[in-house]
Write a structure and sequence with these properties.
Layout: E1 6-10, E2 19-22, E3 29-34, E4 37-42, E5 56-58, E6 61-63, E7 70-72, E8 89-90, E9 92-95, E10 98-101
Antiparallel strand pairs: 1-10, 2-3, 3-4, 4-8, 5-6, 6-7, 9-10
Bound molecules: FE2/S2 (inorganic) cluster (FES).
The site of FE2/S2 (inorganic) cluster has 10 residues, from loops.
Length: 104
């Protein structure tokens, strides 16, 4: 796999609805399995400095457990207030049995 992708998990490591904190290039990201597809997003909520890893995945969305905002995992869009800024999303690939994320 070409740089800047980094291997962050083994394929099959996360069941649907599970997530994992990852640190490619020193960034604080989450790898999420949503309905069998993988997404990489910022770990921290855009509303306040709170980890989305403490929330949960619903369908293709992630919920912040502090104030209840939802974000689209594909686009990062904030779907439910109080958050009104998106979270950033990152390209994900599966190759050679591993999951790779481009954190740049
Ligand atoms: S910190 Fe996430 S919704 Fe407020």
């Amino acid at each position: 796999m070409d740089a800047p992708f980094e291997a962050v998990a083994v394929e099959g490591e996360l069941a649907p609805g599970q997530m994992k904190k990852i640190r490619p290039a020193g960034r604080r990201l989450l790898l999420c399995n949503a309905e069998g597809d993988y997404y990489a997003v910022d770990e921290m909520c855009s509303h306040e400095d709170y980890s989305l890893s403490l929330g949960c995945i619903h369908g293709r969305k992630i919920k912040c457990s502090l104030h209840g905002s939802y974000f689209d995992l594909a686009s990062g869009e904030a779907l439910v207030e109080p958050a009104d800024e998106p979270i950033r999303t990152y390209p994900v690939k599966i190759d050679a049995g591993r999951i790779w994320v481009d954190p740049t």
